[in-house]
């Protein structure tokens, strides 16, 4: 799997830079003919190489001129969930000039860093399955067309890991890193409805480092320390979705000091409190989730989070892309 990470990383870089027939050739070399790729709304399910190119990679190339990848992290390992298989997980920015519309989002004509979370299943050297969340809400923000109020954390371009070692991590302790993340997630599920606190999260022996960073998606933003995480995300989210049940993951992998988990969807919940300008109406919702972690000294030091908020708000009856286009 260690060698497969680099092979896949280079193939994705070539695929993103390629155009026209060369891009289709690169995709045929990388993906199995009957591959299944799920992308955040409004793209959703794509089956087969041609659909993957026509539905996702070619639109990126047309919209973002000079598009190329700047990877923040790229890890791989055996999937601990029942789905099984060898997977790679990555966080990248697709960088270039936002010159033409992308999935209905009007261009800015300026430089953009489109963050994307990715999970790739690799079998016999080819991708057979993948799930991708491009952060389209943050792209809207960068284009000056933000349809959601920026009232929570700090909206920003995501940094690479503080240790600068997230690309093909070294070390054979990925299983231990994933053990830590899984224990944290198990205890995070239950919380005190008065204080919103969960068992074992903070303190000297807590799961989270005192100076932890939490990098959230467009609409939530990023924050520093667990206190900031509570203030700028957790309290607002749990107030809106107090019965949320998460952790329904198809993939969990660990690699060195890093771990990544994803569910499609991961969360089920009902909408019981107003959230980001939307009035609660009690409807049932689901949420697609990707989490990437860096751990150090037995604690979680950094967490990058991709959420498909275009799909979440679609379920609430709103079309964020249409709203952005009208601004």
TrEMBL record:
This is Ester cyclase. GO terms for biological process: polyketide metabolic process. Transmembrane segments: none annotated. It comes from Pontivivens ytuae.
């Amino acid at each position: 799997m260690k060698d497969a990470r680099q092979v896949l990383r280079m193939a994705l870089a070539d695929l993103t830079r390629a155009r026209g027939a060369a891009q289709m050739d690169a995709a045929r070399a990388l993906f199995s003919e009957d591959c299944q790729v799920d992308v955040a709304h409004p793209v959703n399910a794509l089956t087969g190489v041609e659909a993957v190119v026509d539905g996702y990679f070619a639109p990126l190339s047309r919209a973002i001129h000079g598009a190329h990848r700047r990877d923040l992290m790229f890890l791989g390992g055996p999937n601990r969930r029942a789905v099984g298989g060898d997977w790679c997980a990555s966080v990248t920015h697709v960088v270039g000039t936002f010159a033409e519309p992308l999935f209905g989002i009007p261009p800015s004509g300026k430089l953009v860093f489109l963050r994307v979370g990715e999970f790739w299943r690799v079998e016999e050297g080819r991708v057979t399955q993948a799930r991708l969340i491009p952060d389209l809400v943050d792209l809207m923000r960068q284009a000056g067309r933000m349809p959601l109020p920026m009232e929570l954390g700090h909206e920003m371009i995501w940094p690479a890991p503080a240790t600068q070692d997230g690309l093909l991590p070294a070390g054979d302790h990925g299983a231990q890193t994933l053990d830590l993340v899984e224990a944290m997630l198990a205890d995070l599920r239950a919380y005190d409805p008065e204080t919103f606190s969960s068992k074992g999260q903070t303190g000297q022996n807590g799961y989270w480092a005192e100076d932890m960073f939490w990098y959230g998606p467009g609409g939530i933003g990023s924050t520093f320390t667990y206190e900031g995480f509570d203030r700028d995300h957790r309290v607002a989210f749990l107030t809106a979705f107090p019965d949320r049940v998460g952790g329904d993951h198809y993939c969990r992998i660990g690699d060195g000091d890093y771990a990544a988990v994803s569910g499609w969807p991961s969360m089920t919940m009902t909408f019981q409190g107003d959230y980001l300008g939307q009035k609660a109406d009690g409807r049932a919702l689901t949420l697609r989730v990707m989490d990437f972690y860096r751990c150090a000294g037995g604690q979680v030091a950094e967490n990058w989070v991709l959420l498909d908020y275009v799909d979440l708000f679609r379920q609430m009856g709103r079309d964020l892309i249409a709203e952005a286009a009208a601004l």
